[in-house]
Structure formats: structure tokens, C-alpha cells
Model the fold of this input.
Amino acid sequence: MGAIEDIYGDLEADVSFEEFEAAVHEKVEQMGGLADEEAAAMLVANEVGDDEVNGVADIEPGMEEVKFVAKVVSIGEQRTFERDEGEDGRVVNVEVADGTGRVRISLWDELAAAATDGDLEVGQVLRIAGRPKEGYAGVEVSVDRAEPDEDAEVDVEVLDTYRVEDLSLGLSDVNLQGRVLDTDAVRTFSRDDGSEGRVSNLTLGDETGRVRVTMWDERADRAEELSAGDTVEVVDGYTRERDGDLELHVGDRGRVEAIDEAVEYVPETTAIANLAMGETVDVAGGVIEVDPKRTFDRDDGSEGQVRNVRIKDDTDDIRVALWGDKADVDVDLGDYVVCTDVQVKDGWQDDLECSANWRSAIVVTDGPPAGAGGDAGSAAGVDTGTGAGTDTGTGPGGERSGTLDAFDGADGAGSGSGTGGASGGGTARGGSTDGAGSGSASASAATAAADDEPEEGTVVEFTGTVVQAGDPVVLDDGEQTRSVETGERLRLGEEVTVRGPLRDGRIQADEVR
Done:
């Protein structure tokens, strides 16, 4: 064997001998006689070997040429464009994958025509050679050569519909169904060419997790047409990374459609008592305090807004600061909310607080879903027992059955009945005359409280812990809950004694100590 054959025999590269031999002869001519065939063959071998990759994950922008084997995952539509000279160009974007990752490849002109004429199919394995570059959705490979390899096996599952946990960087043509958790307003921006762009966001969740969806230009209006709780399908989306988080984007090829499918989302929340400074977490609980929205001037002269709410689970309570558009979310006393991607920060008087910004989602639900982390909300009056009844009050206290019924009766009298036992933390709701069950009273205690209710106008004295500091104040002594009208400003968790006449199921406090 000659020198060329020997060196080619030791070469671990996807190149035919004919291609290698031609490259050696070309190298000899380029060197102008400064290298013989053996030296030229060694140079060519080094050049070919430098661009070999073990898998898609090793492909990086800046490589002169890479060669790899991958399976076709999706095939885009052919697009035409005008060249400065000659005929119009054609291009087709194809997503390919192997066991290490996924990458988009661009097929040009004749290769593009072959791809759209039926010569290329999803699931087909290709041997690809091309030049990597930084593309709009991550690394892309501009293909020089591509040919089918029927003998190669690539263990990659081709999905028709993705779940959140299936998403990874570099995907395109993604179809995903999810439940709308939160929506943002449409924002405008100026592009480099002077045109105006539009963008909006919504957060989707399914049984495997949640993802932020970014919609561009004409698709941006969907955020204002959809509401939390809607079920939608993202069609032909693509994934990108922003601030370290994976997002699903919808451009001119994609769309977001409302569907009638039921999609379950169960948040994995952290118990409030376990929160630590600097964490980004999901928390959930019953709303026990709501402050008015405030506006302020930023350093750049723009106007900002914030609203504080306090939520409580069975471990503790915490203030959540809702910034920007989050301050407009419809959150009321007695609601159960899930706050995702909130930052734990130093709050007022050295207390921790959660800060909800543009990355966060504030989701109002009917109560803690089965399997929610931290048993959030049970101490705030949410029924977590297997035999606990719900508020069936006939007065104003029973009007919001299905949310946090422990506080639903705080706005008025409700003589409703309480049923169910205390097993598993279950409580009887609506047994007290103010319609605000304590979250810890048993059915028998609630019934006794109703039977022993003083007559209207009777002066009563009650000692309890402040579990709602709004208007009215709600006190809980561990057995029953009382609504109190008072001008005193009381803090959550404070133990006080109030005295005054009973009016419409509330204590009109003349004395607070």
C-alpha cells in the first residue's frame, strides 16, 4: 500500500477514499512542491479529523465543517429568496437529533428541492457535513452534503406532541397543549431597522411542569384574548433560552389555539416556613390580607405600580409584592393563589417577603389541588380532610363557596351549617355566625358555637389571634373565628382581646387590648 492508503486506513472520519485522495493531490498542488504525497496526506488527515464530532451536542459555531449522523425530527416549509445575481435561492430548515441533542440544519437550493419533493422523510437517518453558525434559535448547520444512511441507527424518539418536560434547547415545530396560568399585556419595541415589533407572554402548565410562552408580532394579541384557566395548544413553536430559563416562542409560522381538552397542572410549592433568603420558589396559600395598589415614579421617570397581598399556608404566612402588571391581577380576600417563580427577599421589619416580577405567574384557583406541595392553605381554612364539609351558608358568608371558605364569611353574617368530621384536618365551615370557619374547629365545636350564639346587641368579649388584618379583622381562638369591626390597626399573628356588642354577626369592638 502507498502512503495515502496507509494514512487513510488510520483515519477515523466519515470521508470516502476517493474524496481523501483528491484532497491530498489538491494539497500537493497548493504547496507548490513543498510537500510530497505523504506529508500532504497527513495535513489533510489532520484537517478532516479536527471537525469530527461525537454527537450533535459537540457542534459549536466557528467550526469550519462538521460531520455527524442524526435522525430527521421535523421538516419545515421551503422558502425562496432573491439573490443579488442569478436565480432565486431556496432553503428548507430541518430539525435533526441524535442521543446527545438536537440541532437545526439548513438545506439550500438542490438539497432544499429534494427535501420538499419527498426524498426526505421524518425518521430518516442522514450523514451530514456542514458549517455551524449561530442562528436565530441557537446553533444551526448550513449543510454542504447530506445523504441517507439506511444502516445507521439513531435512538431518538420522534414526538408529535410535546409535554413541558420534553422541551429542550434547539427544538422547532413544537406542538404542546397546556393550561393557561397567567397572561401579560402586549408590549411594543423598536427593531434595528426602525420597524415596530410587538411581543407578549403567557405561562402554560401541564402535568409535567410549566413553561413561559413568548408570542411575537401578529401572534402577540393572543395574550389579551386568553384568560387563566383556558386550555390551548401551541402549534409550530420553537425553544429559546432567556436569562437561563427555557422558553417556548411562537413566531409567524406558529399559532396558539384554544382547545376543549382538559389539562391538569399541579404546582410543586414550598412551605412558607421553609423559605430562605435569595431563593426563587413557588408558594401557595389563602389570601388573608390585600393592600391597595400603589403607584410610584422610577428613576427613569416612568411610572411603576405595586400591590401587596399576604398569603397563608399551614406552616406560616408571608407578604407577596406584586410588581408591574402583576399588581392588576384580580386577587381578593379568601382566594387561594399559587405564586410561581417569586424571589424571596428582605421585607419590612426584617421579615421575609416574596417578590413577583415579570417572570412570575399569579394563579387564582378554587383551592389546593391534590398533591400540591407544602399542604398549602389548610391552616388558612382550606378543607384538607376526607370528611370535611364545605360552606353551605345562606347569608353573605356563603356566597363564595369553593374558594377559601374559612374567610368567605368574613364580609357578612352567615348562619350556614357545617358538616363533616375533623379527620385529616377536616373542618366544618360556616358553623360560626360570621360564616368564617376557623380552619381548625371540629364539626362538634362549630355546631356548639352556633347553638351558644349570644343574642343581637349582647356585649361579648373574645380573645384570639389575628388571621386577617383587613376590614373586617378576623380573630381565631383555635375553636371558633370572629369577625370584628374596629378602627385599630392590628397585625397578623397578634393575639388580642376585643369587647363590644354583637351586630349582624360581628363584634363592634369598643375596646381592644
Q: What stands out?
A: The radius of gyration is 32 Å. The chain has a mean pLDDT of 78. The chain has five domains: 3-50, 69-148, 164-258, 272-375, 396-512.
